[in-house]
Amino acid sequence: MAIAEQATQGSSDKSWHGIVLQTLKRNEISLIPYVPDRVLTPLIKNLHADPFFTTFATAREEEAVGIVSGAWMGGRRGAVLMQTSGFATLANVLASLAVPYQIPLILFVSERGTLGEFNYGQSLVCRTMRPVLDSLALEHHTITRLDELEFIADRSIKQAVTTQAPVALILSPLLTGGKVFDK
Amino acid sequence: MSSNMNTRNTKVMNRFDVTSRLIGKLKHEEAVIGGIGNTNFDLWAAGHRPQNFYMLGSMGLAFPIALGVALAQPERRVFALEGDGSLLMQLGALSTIAMLKPKNLIMIVMDNGIYQITGAQPTPAADVADIVAIAIGSGLANSAWAADEEDFERLVEEAMSASEPSLIAVRIDDKPGVGTTRRDPVQIRERFMHGLGVREPL
């Protein structure tokens, strides 16, 4: 993490979080509720610093999903940031709100539980994520490469909006550096 | 129905009656989010409006959904109707709202101390917790119990010109909802967006 994070600090447009921020802005996504994650910290910090975005923490991930769903219906676009364990709390709200009401819910999930996980609970939670997404036929992509990030994120956001369907963008440790034992 | 609520000397009202009184006061296409179950059944029964949104699941999210609408349309007043059992599922949302302070958001809690729709089992809060005290403790200073129907209407009028979010708690009886919402989520969402001026019908 230390090396990967040092390389991405400073929010140049070429960092993963710089690309995410610019892609959100270009797609007029301005409402960003989140439940924090260590890996997402530079993105969250830069979103807070940019007045284009309304960025704030919520107590639970499903609360954030409710907020961006209401905002979408009111004509404002949002996206939710969380980590893997937060996604694991969302099956009910995905199945009873986002999917049946056809809301283009945009989720960014920082992936914990794989590629060097040190917490057994996190590794088990991670294994529930894709089966839940697949059980609802919910579009999801795992982003591993910096050179593919903008394409996947930009296209996925546009597809979510035009097809009125949720999308989950999973940010792999291969992209972000992840979180390692010494933190 | 609990002892501590009796000491508040608030009248036990009826959800459909209170909901109808609220709808009767709406003259400016205010949005109304109806929480899961009886709360939105009575909203439906009070007369469908294009600015009503009816939840068919996601228990506890009436206030967060209303918060999203309020943040998207700051010039429109947004009401959320929620049951006490639902609110208990998402108490953290009160602090989120208190932090953001959307002045156009008005939260109404229908408190009967029971999960009426599943067989009237008491909530864990019924005899021990006070919804208004929880709201105030969460940072929502403008929270109050409605003493009776007239007081409810007065509180609604105050909330419509308030400079901060408002929460009104209403002690209600154990009656089920009067109607049943048509469970068509796509049509509910689409008509709501038409009602908010976000989209035009095809």
Automatic annotation (TrEMBL), chain B:
**Swiss-Prot/TrEMBL keywords:** Decarboxylase, Lyase, Membrane, Thiamine pyrophosphate, Transmembrane, Transmembrane helix
The Thiamine pyrophosphate enzyme TPP-binding domain extends over 42-170
Biological process (GO) annotations held by this record are:
small molecule metabolic process
Biological source species = Bradyrhizobium niftali
Q: Which GO terms describe its molecular function?
A: carboxy-lyase activity; magnesium ion binding; thiamine pyrophosphate binding
Q: What is the lineage of its organism?
A: Bacteria, Pseudomonadati, Pseudomonadota, Alphaproteobacteria, Hyphomicrobiales
This chain belongs to which protein, by name?
A: Thiamine pyrophosphate enzyme TPP-binding domain-containing protein
NCBIfam families given in the database record: PRK06163.1
| InterPro entries in UniProt | Sulfopyruvate_deCO2ase_bsu, THDP-binding, TPP-bd_CS, TPP_dependent_decarboxylase, TPP_enzyme_TPP-bd
What's the short name of a Pfam family annotated to this entry? Answer: TPP_enzyme_C
UniProt keyword Ligase present? no
Q: Which residues cross the membrane?
A: 53-72
